[in-house]
Each structure stands twice: as C-alpha cells, then as structure tokens.
Specification:
Largest sheet: 7 strands, mixed, barrel
Radius of gyration: 26 Å
Distance between the termini: 75 Å
Number of strands: 11
Number of helices: 7
Helix content: 10-25%
Strand content: 15-25%
Protein name: Kynurenine formamidase
Length: 276
C-alpha cells in the first residue's frame, strides 16, 4: 500500500496543480489572452495589504484639498455624474508586460483650474491657456474663510468678511461643503458661488489673485458668465474650483496647487494641498 501511495502522489499533485491553473484562467476571462502569450497563473493578490487612502498627512500638518476623481463625482450640468473615465486597454492579466491605463476627462473635472481662455474667445485664440498661469499665484500663503451660509457671495458678503489688504490667496468655504455637493453624483445648480457684484468687488477692492471655492464653479449659477468675466478679464485672478474643504479648520496655511501643463487647454484638473 505504501508503494502504491508513493507512486500516485505525484500524479495527484499534477492533477490539482492543473486544476488550479485552469480555474485561474477561467476567472480571468474578462482579460482575453493576447496572441503569442500565455497565462502564468501566478498572483500576489492575497499577499498584498490593502492600500490606505488618506486626506490628512504628517500628523495633521498637511491636508489634501483635492477631490478624488471617481465615476460618481458630479460633472457640470450632468445628472448621472462623471461616468467612466478610465480604461485599461493593456493589462498584465491579458498578457501585456505592464498595466497601462487610458483616460478621457473634461478639463474642468473635479478639482480644477480655469484659464482666461475659458470664457474669452479672444484670449483662447491668443494662447492664454493653463500653461500660461502663474505658479507663484498658485503657491504661497492662503487664507481659508467661512462664508455666511444663507446666501451667495455678493459685494455685501465680501465686505463683511473683512479680508485684510495684502492677502493674495483666499479659499472660500460655503454651504456647498456642508451640503456635501461634491460627493453627490447629480449636478446641483443651487450651489453657492459669486454673484457678479461680489466678483467685481473682490477684483477692485482686494489684493486677492487666487480664488478657491468648494464646488464646480466659482460663479453662482444665476451669474455664471458675468462673474467669470469679472474675474478673468484682467488675466490676474486665477480660479481654482471644486476644492475639498471639509474637516479643515479655517485659518492661514500655505497652499500648493499644481495643474497639468496642457498646451491649448483652457482648464485642467489640479492637485491642491494645504500645509500648516
């Protein structure tokens, strides 16, 4: 009996190994094998710890104020959210040497920046794209302020905020953050933003050159283009929209915002952080 068992064991191991590889291939049918390659059946999936996604770093000293891009995040004017934006045409599972994704995004997706060519066609034709934006404006000391929750940002509201002269970068936290509008799939036109007189007052009476806000547009829906005109006509104010400001105490920080250098684009997704 011992001799027979010893002889059959290698065959049993071979059978179960073959069965395991067959099942592994069957589980990956969503990734068709590329001609000329074959499935290895080897995976480290069960040995890799789950990743940690954070909003706060360095024991509370660094805040990530950019929204994570997801299929269910809001897109301007859309009721069904952003939708699929990422594809994996080349994957290790289907025989490629590496995973290589492709994406298709509107330039004003999620946390993003506006260039003057966004609303002025003569600026667009002249080349005032995101590649011309001043990194000195996008990086430096910034003030995070809370806006009264019951109204859009008018000239009257701007006056009551009492923003000191010399402050060049201000992030405006509004009712949009309280309502968690950036976490809802459906676009909501009732968001809080700047009315035209508020934008004009800011341009004419403050030293602010970077305006940040917590929804997809700095301009209130009722004054969408007029407010943008006030901000961008002089080509000195930069708008950063769709900021993630929940859980961040109001006060003074250093802001660091870096967008993609998209030649010819009037907007770009941007990564912004605050550092105490």
């Amino acid at each position: 009996m011992m001799a027979k068992t010893t002889i059959k064991l290698p065959f049993l191991l071979l059978f179960f190994t073959s069965l395991t590889l067959t099942l592994a291939v069957a589980e990956n049918t969503a990734y068709p094998t590329i001609p000329g390659t074959q499935e290895t059946g080897f995976s480290l999936a069960n040995e890799v710890p789950a990743p940690v996604r954070r909003e706060v770093y360095a024991d509370g000293r660094i805040y990530d104020i950019s929204h994570r891009i997801t299929t269910n995040m809001p897109a301007f004017g859309e009721l069904e959210g952003l939708g699929q934006y990422l594809w994996l045409p080349a994957s290790i599972k289907n025989g490629s040497l590496a995973n290589n994704s492709e994406m298709k995004l509107a330039t004003h997706t999620g946390t993003h920046v506006d260039a003057p060519g966004h609303v002025f066609d003569h600026y667009f034709d002249a080349g005032y794209d995101v590649d011309t934006l001043d990194l000195e404006v996008l990086n430096g000391p910034a003030l995070l302020v809370d806006v009264p929750r019951d109204k859009n940002i008018t000239a009257e509201v701007m006056e009551t905020l009492n923003i000191p002269k010399g402050v060049r970068r201000v992030l405006f936290r509004t009712l949009n953050t309280d309502r968690k509008l950036m976490f809802r799939k459906e676009f909501d036109s009732s968001y809080v933003g700047f009315m035209r007189d508020g934008a004009r007052w800011l341009v004419q009476n403050t030293d602010i050159k970077l305006v940040g806000i917590d929804y997809l547009s700095a301009a209130a829906y009722a004054d969408l283009l007029p407010s943008h005109y006030e901000f961008l006509e002089g080509r000195e104010v930069i708008l950063v929209e769709g900021l993630k400001l929940d859980g961040v105490p109001a006060g003074l920080y250093n802001v660091h915002c870096l967008h993609l250098r998209l030649l010819g684009a009037e907007g770009s997704p941007i990564r912004c952080i605050l550092i105490k």
